[in-house]
Amino acid sequence: MFAATGAVDDPVRLIRTAMAIVCFSGELLPFTGEERTETEASAFRDIVAELVQRYDRLDEEKLMGMAIAIDGVIVHTPLLEVIGPDSELHFLHRISGG
Amino acid sequence: MAKTHVTSTVNGEAVEFLCEPGDTLLDVLRNDLQLTGTKEGCGSGDCGACSVMLNDRLVCACLVLGVEAEGAKIGTIEGIGSNDRLHVLQEKFLEHAALQCGICTPGLIVAAKALLDENPNPTEEETRYWLAGNLCRCTGYDKIIRAVMDAAETMRESA
Amino acid sequence: MSEARDFKYIGQRTIRPDGADKVTGRANYAADFALPGMIWGKILRSPHAHAKVLSIDTSKAEAYPGVFAVATHADFPGGEGGSIEAGESAVNLKDLSRNILADDKVLYAGHAVAAVAAVSERVAEEALELIEVSYEVLPHVMEIEDAMQADAPVLHEDMFTKGLDEEPDKPSNVATRTELKMGDVEAGFAEADVIVEREFKVSRAHQGYIEPHACTVRYDEDGQSLIWCSTQGHFDVRALNSQLLGIELSRLKVIPAEIGGGFGGKTTVYLEPIALILSRKSGKPVKMVMDRDEVFMATGPTSAANLKAKVGAKKDGTITAMQGWMAYDAGAFAGSPMMPGVMTMFTPYDCPNVLVEGYDVVLNRSKTAAYRAPGAPQSEFAAEMVVNEVAEKLGMDPIDLRLQNAAKEGTQTIYGPKLKRVGLVECLEAAKNSPHYQSALAEGQGRGIAAGFWFNIGGSSSVTVNMHSDGTGSIIEGSPDIGGSRASMQMMVAEVLGIPLDRLKPIVADTDTLPYNGTTGGSRTTFATGMAVIEAAEKVVEQVKARAAALWNVTAEQVEYADGVVRNLAGEESISLAEVCKSAAQTGGEISGSANINARGAGPSFAVHLCDVEVDQETGKVDVTRYTAIQDAGKAIHPGYVEGQYQGGAVQGIGWALNEEYVYNDKGQVDNAGFLDYRVPLASDLPMIDTIVVEVPNAFHPYGVRGVGESGIIPPLGAVGWAVGNAIDRKVEELPCSPPRVLSMIQSG
Questions:
Q1: Same-domain status, B55 and B110
Q2: If you classify domain A20-92 with CATH, what class do you get?
Q3: Which residues of chain A make contact with C459, given a CB cutoff of 8 A?
Q4: pTM above 0.90?
Q5: Is there a single domain that holds both residue B75 and residue B92?
Q6: For chain B, what percent of residues have pLDDT higher than 70?
Q7: pLDDT at B77
Q8: What is the pLDDT of residue A19?
Q9: What confidence tier does A26 reach under pLDDT thresholds 50, 70, 90?
């Protein structure tokens, strides 16, 4: 998960070596061209920014209008959420009810 | 158009009001007499939410003209039960969870009371057919029928 | 968090706290309100299914004695573009405002064109007849398959189908195409020993709430506005009106009246913006109540659908591939629930190869609105019918086939995440062991079974529990009570505080009183608002403990709270909740707890229904002779109201499967816009609806709650549809199975 680096008299630097996995539902496939990707970013809003950078056809408004499942638990756009390494983040259609 | 002056009895009390020829009894009860317990669901006699008693007969108030109330005896949901005690039917509806949104409940209770006044021991089928004129969209009728038949039994026992 | 435990109040059949008001007629629904000086609003509606609006002349209506104001689309402030968060999904504001009052086009017969406010409803209706609208009538298109043709009349010149590989260069009536898949269906079908493929049609069905839409509003000269309305979500009414009319949220006070049914149809707005405009222009409070025919003509039912389902399985019962296609009718504006239909279609099955394609199609019918598990009944109907046919071909019991392939914890869904712990297997086993399933069918009867899945949602709930000096408390929450939720809130707080129920009063408060609360819908209320009231009550307990600890000069860890009493673990003293509340002002201030949460971890609710029918071979009339609704509630807070949800959903589904549909004439007008001919089930149509409440707790709720409101409408379509086919030895491919259709199936041989 985390690897310590640095020489003996350097401060230990923790580097995140495991990535969070981002999965796109079929609804987003036309915009991303792929079903999954990985990200180093851990804060949700940083992940959104990274994805918008990575995929031309994807804009922030589209992503923020979707629901998110973090390791299977569905939430709505958790701006301040920290996504752990090895976590799976799914973007899916936001369900309303009746 | 000139309004007609009508005198009537509602829930045992003398009332008088002015209404236009085209006003229904339902309009009069709700708007002029402020008895809003009787509800309008369709205005065409198909849903029973406006069920009231007119001279001891169960009717849809939306199919009765306001002027027809002249000299008549009218009973609405407000006349069922008393200040300090719910009617057995009302108690059973609550015990059996026989209402969800409650919009059909006043009409159903008026109709169910009319049934039990005429037939104190109805079968399930008789109950269902008597109440076929009262639509409920929330409950599927199951708990309503159970409540009415339970009320009938309680009323027979205490009679 | 939710291991099996003994509850003191949870699980009892309490008397709902608003019950006396409802059985006496005292409870106030939206049409029951009046304000001093109030006038009445009525709406002029288009007789044409599709036409350009060339001009509207309201001058004669404005001059009519007793008329105070008229309104048209021009009265909406300009620049209402984009979409806003209203509840759980984005709403396209431009489409919404054009639906509320037509702009340059009318798109369905019944589309609102103008409105009048006058001294009485009768005067308003007379004035409507004086409004002169000049229409250029256009060809209309009413059926999904016709609307999808290249040469169909186009409703929106700016609609270019989204989701295609290449953006089209011509507008069409297809708003969106989408596709979800996993695995390889072709390989899956190649492995199958048995493949069944069928096409289906499902009708539009209206939510059928007995209470028509109604509101009473007042717009004051400084912009402060009051709205009393029938709604499932008054905070969303506030949000929508704020955006549509450019009024700040804090100036709009929305008071939810008691609501006479919604089922999803009252999560949007039709009347309130018009009433506000009329109130602003007239300077008077305005009341608007829809007539029943207006409800059927112009408020959203859910979509009709054309569907295809294909399922392949091996001889041993393993399902190897599942494929679906659907086109949903959105009515006049884009936004059918096609996407949830795609997502739910095969979710009850653990199959690695699934492909589902969906189309959102506009046509000249009223704009659709949410209806109980929106989109899922249609798609899951198709899936369940085909699964039943696969079982039949394999000679396998349909419950066993489902058990063998049932979705469970860890099953990969087509829409992304894996399922957490769910109760489908338990529901199927309960079905198999039920007295209903064990009973023999009589001669000429048919039996059907079907499963259903709905996500359920969480979202925002904001509540406060206020304690009074006599130890009683008020639960201030913001979820309109459509099915007994006040009772559940009362029980959950009583459970935390350990005091009798009748010492707690739940109140559904207005938008001025609480922060935002999501709509009562999506099966979220007992789950999310429940979670919030539990958290708020726990904060009350913490405060009470802290006050007692301070009184005794000990730390909070040295006191314990149970059953309404605080005990000093480091000594002998005890003090009741009531006593602490009595001296609250002297110990630091009044005691209350708030919780504003965005609830996550809503657990899906699976349902399995069994239906027996008898068919009259001469008339085609179908009688339901026995029905059992089985569903996972996680934890039933109030069993009576949980059963009520199962029964209500089942009967709406039975109505849809047997009789409910829209009948249009050749002008595109609704011919059956009333309860006589839009035939919902009556008490005399039905037997008792037996229920089995399965409880597989949802670990994300303190008491294990799963929402239950919606899943129950999904299985009836397949259970009834299959039962009818079983009774007449045919394959049902179209709903509703109304007598003419059933007769035609019987006679087709």
A1: no
A2: alpha beta
A3: 76
A4: yes
A5: no
A6: 99
A7: 98
A8: 86
A9: confident
Tell me the chain A residues in contact with residue C163 when contact means C-beta distances shorter than 8 Å.
Answer: 27, 30
Q: C430: pLDDT confidence band, cut at 50, 70 and 90?
A: very high
Which of C416, C418, C710 comes nearest A25 by C-beta?
A: C416
How confident is the model at residue A9, as a pLDDT?
46
B 64-123 residues with CB below 8 A of C? 76-78, 80-81, 86, 90, 93-97, 99-106, 109
User: Residue C521 and residue A94: Cβ atoms within 8 Å?
Assistant: no
Same domain, B73 and B128: no
Question: Which of A23, A94, A98 has the CB atom closest to C374's CB atom?
Answer: A98
Nearest in space to C358 (alpha carbons), one of C507, C163, C519:
C163
In this predicted structure, what is the pLDDT of residue A10? 44
Determine the distance in angstroms separating the CA of B80 from the nearest CA of chain C, rounded to an integer.
Answer: 7
pLDDT, chain B, mean: 97
Give the mean model confidence (pLDDT) for residues C447-460.
97
Query: Does the pLDDT at position B82 exceed 90?
Result: no
Domain match, B48 and B107 both: no
Cβ within 8 Å, pair C417-A69: yes
**Structural contact between residues C516 and C526, judged by C-beta atoms closer than 8 angstroms:** no
**Per-residue confidence at A15, pLDDT binned at 50, 70, 90?**
low
CATH number, domain at B19? Answer: 3.10.20.30
Q: Of the candidates B25, B60, B79, which is a domain's last residue?
A: B79
Give Cα C412 to chain centroid, integer Å. Answer: 26
What are the DSSP E strand ranges found in C38-94? Answer: 39-45, 51-57, 67-71, 83-86, 89-92
Of C370, C420, C700, the CB nearest to A96: C370
| Domains of chain C by start residue, with CATH | 19-27+458-599 (3.30.365.10), 33-138+211-260+266-298 (3.90.1170.50), 305-456+603-748 (3.30.365.10)
Distances (CA, A) of C208 to B142, C457, C493, C682, C688: 18, 23, 33, 12, 21
B75, B129: one domain: no
Q: Give per-residue pLDDT as tens, C349-370.
A: 999 999 999 999 999 999 999 9
Domains of chain B: total:
2
> pLDDT digits over C528-548, tens only?
999 999 999 999 999 999 999
* Residues C18-52: tens digit of each pLDDT: 999 999 999 999 999 999 999 999 999 999 999 99
Domain around B140: 88-158
Distance CA C647, CA B143 (A): 9
In C, which residues are within 8 Å of A88 by CB distance? 417
B114 and B59 together in one domain: no
What distance in Å separates the CA atoms of residue C642 and residue C548, rounded to the nearest whole number? 38
Q: What pLDDT is attached to residue C322? A: 98
- What subunits make at least 3 CB pairs under 8 angstroms with A? C
DSSP β-ladder status, C252-256 and C225-229: parallel
Measured in whole angstroms, the distance separating CA B154 from the mean position of its chain's CA atoms is 20
Chains A and C are in contact, defined as 3 or more C-beta pairs closer than 8 angstroms: yes
Domain boundary among B79, B100, B121: B79
Q: Is C336 helix (H, G, I), strand (E, B) or coil?
A: coil
Pairing of strands C225-229, C214-219: antiparallel
Interface predicted TM-score (ipTM): 0.98
Q: Average per-residue pLDDT in chain C?
A: 96
pLDDT at C83: 53
One domain for residues B64 and B122: no
Cβ(C293)–Cβ(C306) below 8 Å: no
Q: Categorize the per-residue pLDDT at C514 as very low, low, confident or very high, splitting at 50, 70 and 90.
A: very high
How many angstroms away from the CA of B126 is the closest CA of chain C? 9
Six-digit token pair at C122?
A: 């009768």
Q: Indicate whether B101 and B128 sit together in one domain.
A: yes
| C-alpha to C-alpha distance for A8 and A12, rounded to whole angstroms | 8
Q: DSSP for C462-523?
A: EEEEEEPTTS-EEEEE----SSSHHHHHHHHHHHHHT--GGGEEEEE--TTTSS----S-TT
